[in-house]
Amino acid sequence: MKRCMALFCLVAICTLVGAQEAPVAAEEPVAKTAAKDDSATMPKLEKEGEGIEVPELADMEEFREWLLTLTQGERDEVFIASDAGPMPSGLYTGFMLSDRPNFEDFDISITKKAIMTFIFDRWLGKTFDGKGNLANILRDESGFEKKDLKGTLTLEKGYSDDKDSWIALYGKDTAYDFILDEFREIRPNFLFGKTYLVPPEKGDKVFFECGLVKIGDEAPAGQTPSEFLLDNLAEAEPTALGEPVSETVPVPPAETKKDEAEKNKEDDYAEKEVAEEPLVKAQDSPDPAPATLPTPEAEAPEAEPDLDLDEIMD
């Protein structure tokens, strides 16, 4: 009986030990294999072009250069990521991101094309009164009445997404009655704008893009907004070498002019000697051609009289 009990206990102990060790031996390689497969198939969570940071901007030129470094898709992403910001108020200098609007992709009349081309060449910026009114500023506003350049500004749903934007609308009696502008503030006092043909729908193609930078609350006393913006551009505009544009052309002193005159005289004399050199060589040659080098004493042959065909026929 004792031997049976001992045998039974031995079998129970072996069974218990085997049950505890078996899962450990089976689970270890499975766990290692699963970890290796997960790392090989891990998807990338980063999205290309996501998180474009707007740099610190000092002026209009830096704003324009930065926007031009971005692709159209990146500019759209910056616009969508931006908020409308506070209502614009004050005097803003502006720029277009293209020299001309792309008319090919839009159904627009010849008259409207002419108006937009004219405005593109003369547009300087906008002025906002902070109460929902605005006016466009041109280099030369002759030929336009004040109402032609005015518009209204309201906070509405944008056309790029469902977020709010500042929408500039122009009445039927204005020069801009066939377009509207959508603005968002990407930095304090820096507005990024998209212009659409009216009536636009969400997702419509942009007619053109522009930027606005606030430079003051209003034009100084004695200056129109147009004059003030032109002066501001003249101060900031560099030459091809990056130097400020000089308003005066230096006049050379009298001595410099005299030296140039003497130099020109010497050049003319040298050219004359070069022109006479072949004649001298021809005279010194052993077999000169007598017919080609007449002497100074030789008289020129008399010209033959003109023949009249009618007299000969008679």
Secondary structure elements and pairings:
Layout: H1 2-40, H2 60-69, H3 72-81, E1 89-96, H4 110-122, E2 123-129, E3 133-138, E4 150-157, E5 164-169, E6 179-187, E7 190-197, E8 208-216, H5 225-236, H6 254-284, H7 309-313
Antiparallel strand pairs: 1-2, 1-8, 2-3, 3-4, 4-5, 5-6, 6-7, 7-8
Description:
There is one protein chain. Helices cover 38% and strands 19% of the residues. The chain is α+β, with helices and mostly antiparallel strands and 314 residues long. The protein has an eight-stranded antiparallel beta barrel. Strand 4 (150-157) and strand 5 (164-169) form a beta hairpin. The protein starts with a helix and ends with a helix.
In short:
With 314 residues, the protein is of the alpha+beta class. The chain has helices at 2-40, 60-69, 72-81, 110-122, 225-236, 254-284, 309-313; strands at residues 89-96, 123-129, 133-138, 150-157, 164-169, 179-187, 190-197, 208-216.
In terms of quaternary structure, the protein is single chain
Report helical residue fraction: 25-40%
Structural class by SSE content = alpha+beta
Query: How do the strands of the widest beta sheet line up side by side?
Result: 1-2-3-4-5-6-7-8
Secondary-structure element string: HHHEHEEEEEEEHHH
Mean pLDDT: 73
The major β-sheet equals: 8 strands, antiparallel, barrel
Specify Rg, calculated over alpha carbons: 43 Å
The percent range for strand residues is 15-25%
Distance between the termini: 173 Å
Number of helices in the DSSP assignment:
7
Total strands? 8
Overall geometric form: globular
Low-pLDDT parts are: 1-49, 238-258, 278-285, 288-296, 307-314
